[in-house]
């Protein structure tokens, strides 16, 4: 099983350390990349400059209060970009303000979670986010727009790919090889 890719957009070194610690204790291997401000996050997601070979994240954990470009701006950019909009974005922030919650959902955040102030609760919350998105919930792997265009041009256009596509009934190489629904 391939490690899941998570982009943490967080400027607090303490919260970064705690998130790394929480991810070390989850059963599924995870690779956590960190962007410390909004501009760095967008460069990472768009694979610009030093991030040209950055992995496409399976999940984005996004703080709202960031330097350079705040999390609301980053979220708006993610959700209007056809190459990024399919990546789940979970707002993980200290703000409990209703206007922040409403704005995040207006910008199509997939979830809004207020960071617990207690260390143990913070660790547990991050582990539960990981558990939900990678064990309970199902996400799609979206090929980049460039990959989609290349496949389309080659006459092999495909939509989003489920992570474990080979195990779906009726798929090539699946366990049963049949076409049941």
CATH architecture of the largest domain: 3-Layer(aba) Sandwich
Radius of gyration from CA coordinates: 17 Å
Strand line-up of the largest beta sheet: 2-1-3-4-5
Average of the residue pLDDT scores? 79
CATH class of the largest domain: Alpha Beta
Order of helices and strands: EHEHEHEHEHEHE
CATH topology name of the largest domain, in short, is: Rossmann fold
Which range does the strand content fall in? 15-25%
Please count the helical segments: 6
The geometry reads as: globular
Major β-sheet profile: 5 strands, parallel
Instruction: Give the number of domains.
Output: 2
Helix content: 25-40%
Class per helix and strand makeup: alpha/beta
Quantity of strands, as a count: 7
Q: Low-confidence parts, pLDDT < 50 over ≥5 residues?
A: 142-181
CATH homologous superfamily annotation of the largest domain: Response regulator
Gap from first CA to last CA: 25 Å
Account of the 3D structure:
Helix 4 (98-106) links the parallel strand 4 and strand 5 (111-114). The protein is 36% helix and 16% strand. A five-stranded parallel beta sheet has the order 2-1-3-4-5, sandwiched between helices. The protein has a two-stranded antiparallel sheet with strand order 6-7. The two termini are 25 Å apart. By secondary structure, it is α/β, with parallel strands linked by helices. It contains six helices and seven strands. The protein has two domains: 4-139, Rossmann fold (3-Layer(aba) Sandwich); 143-181, no CATH class.
């Amino acid at each position: 099983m391939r490690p899941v890719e998570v982009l943490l957009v967080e400027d607090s070194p303490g919260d970064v350390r705690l998130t790394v610690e929480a991810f070390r204790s989850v059963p599924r291997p995870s690779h956590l990349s960190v962007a410390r401000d909004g501009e760095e996050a967008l460069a990472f997601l768009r694979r610009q400059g030093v991030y040209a070979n950055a992995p496409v994240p399976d999940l984005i954990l996004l703080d709202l209060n960031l330097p350079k470009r705040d999390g609301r701006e980053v979220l708006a950019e993610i959700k209007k970009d056809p190459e990024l909009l399919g990546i789940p974005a979970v707002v993980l922030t200290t703000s409990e303000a209703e206007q922040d919650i409403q704005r995040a959902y207006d910008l199509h955040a997939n979830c809004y979670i207020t960071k617990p102030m207690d260390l143990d609760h913070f660790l547990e919350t991050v582990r539960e986010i990981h558990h939900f998105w990678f064990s309970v919930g199902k996400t799609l792997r979206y090929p980049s727009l460039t990959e989609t265009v290349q496949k389309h041009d080659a006459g092999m256009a495909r939509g989003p790919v489920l992570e474990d596509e080979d195990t779906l009934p009726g798929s090539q190489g699946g366990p049963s090889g049949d076409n049941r629904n």
